[in-house]
Amino acid sequence: MSSLYSKLSVLKDDEDFFLNSRTNKTIKEIQKELNITIDEAMILSIIMSYQIQDTYSTSFDSLKKDFKLQSDEYLKYLNIAYKLEKKGFIALAEERRRGRSSRISPEFNVDDMIFNKLILGYDYLDDVDFSDIYSVVNIIAELISKKKYKKLTEFRLVSEANRVFDKLDIKEEFTKAILKYSIKEKLLLMYLIYEYIDGNSGEIASRICEIFFDDLSYRARYLESILKEELDIFKDKLVQLEERSGLFDSSTDIQLTPKAIALLLQSKDKKKKQEFKAQFTKHIKFNSLKKEIFLDERVARDINQLKDVCSSKNFNKIVKDLKKANLPSGIVSIFYGFAGTGKTASVYEIAKLTKRDVLQVDISSIQSKWVGESEKNTKAIFQEYYRACEILKSKPILLFNEADAIISKRLDVNDAVSQMNNTMQNILLEELENFDGIFMATTNLIDNMDDAFSRRFLNKIKFDRPTAKTREHIWKSKLPELEDKIYEKLSIYDLSGGQIENATRKYLINKILNQKEFDFDEILEYIKEEIEFKNNDDNSLKVGFLK
């Protein structure tokens, strides 16, 4: 609206102001604009008139003197002023807060946003791009922040938020989805979106209620409705609860569901294509995977079958049929066996052939020294995966690499570390129970796997040490310039694919440094180093020169 400066500035000089206020067009305009009563608009108008001409704050007893009000009239108008103060349109001046003015003779100042809008003709919402959901989220977050730091009352928070929501583009999918909810549910969704964008998985439910509600009884009832999941946003699966499980924190977080995140991203994608940015995983694009792999016949057969399951031709139909049969639809697999036998490389091979990116998790990277953070990180991994499913062209593979620590048998809890590991395992078990996508894990220690994990893995592929024939193929791929009889000689040594690669790398480095031709004895020394190191590293494995 345009500035009311000139119209408001003269009101304090009108001796008949209170007599004519109910018919005053300016006051009626303010009443309509702010959705307040005519009496509230009248008192707000006269306070602004004083504030324009005098100082930042207005001593209310000036009205009594200037307009020669009787005591009962003055108290009537003062009562209306306090209603305005409770709603947040005006505030007690700092002097009043320090006790320098009485309850009968308070000093008020007009809220900055109201002053800017009515006096200066500036509305902060004019700067908001309502076609951009993130701009809307940001302005709602600013309003909530003002409420949090007591610069805005609950009434004004709701009032200003309604102004924002009324301006949303109803053609946007996300807008259509949220406008049907109550104002507090809309605010809650916006707040959680802001937290999500800011890198936080959620917020403590009781803290949100403390921010939103001034009245303790309303706060308690709303918290109860959240904890009992009675709100419509729970029924529509846009938010979910997550228990904090640290030793010193048993509170409950409320957070967006993958469905809400997907809805948000779909809405945004119509404006601009989203770029997936990994925070808790390592994003490996399928077209960057070039490495060739050689597997024994049995393992190759199992990997090829899993590759066929994950292919774009078959995957969606398989998932649809599993869901139709009320069976878990996630393709959850584990590769186990000796180190260096191609477990991780096989995941990459499947990704490369099915044109699916890999989101790789190294367990050590999500473990934190801070109580409760490791558990939050575990949950965040799956949220990140589902976000990637919405952004990337094909559903990616979630890879838990070297997952021994997190899938091993659960321990009796007697310290913080054990509790953390057990909680992480419980979260992983819960996620895998209802997993929607492609999950793969690798481990060297299958014997120590918790039975609960064993039940959740649909495919269990064992990787033995490669046969002589497979080792010959691996040597040939690493050193293609040699004669066939050399490969036959090298293949008799019982090495894994990883050990062959290490021996080859050392040989090639030395060859470059010393400008030497192929020397069988030299590469044999590197083979011995690999075998001796493995023998020292794990005497339980029977490895060495074959006789």
TrEMBL record:
GO MF terms, alphabetically ordered: ATP binding; ATP hydrolysis activity
Keywords, comma-separated and alphabetical: ATP-binding, Nucleotide-binding
Record the organism.
Arcobacter porcinus
- The molecule here is called ATP-binding protein (AAA domain)
The AAA+ ATPase domain covers which part of the protein? 329-467
Any single Pfam family the record assigns to this protein:
AAA
Q: Which SUPFAM superfamilies match?
A: P-loop containing nucleoside triphosphate hydrolases
Q: Check the record and name the CDD domains matching this protein.
A: RecA-like_protease (cd19481)
Keyword ATP-binding applies: yes
Q: Does the keyword S-adenosyl-L-methionine apply?
A: no
Phylogenetic classification of the source organism: Bacteria, Pseudomonadati, Campylobacterota, Epsilonproteobacteria, Campylobacterales
Family statement: Belongs to the AAA ATPase family.
State the source organism's domain of life.
Answer: Bacteria
Q: Which InterPro entries match?
A: 26S_Proteasome_ATPase, AAA+_ATPase, ATPase_AAA_core, P-loop_NTPase
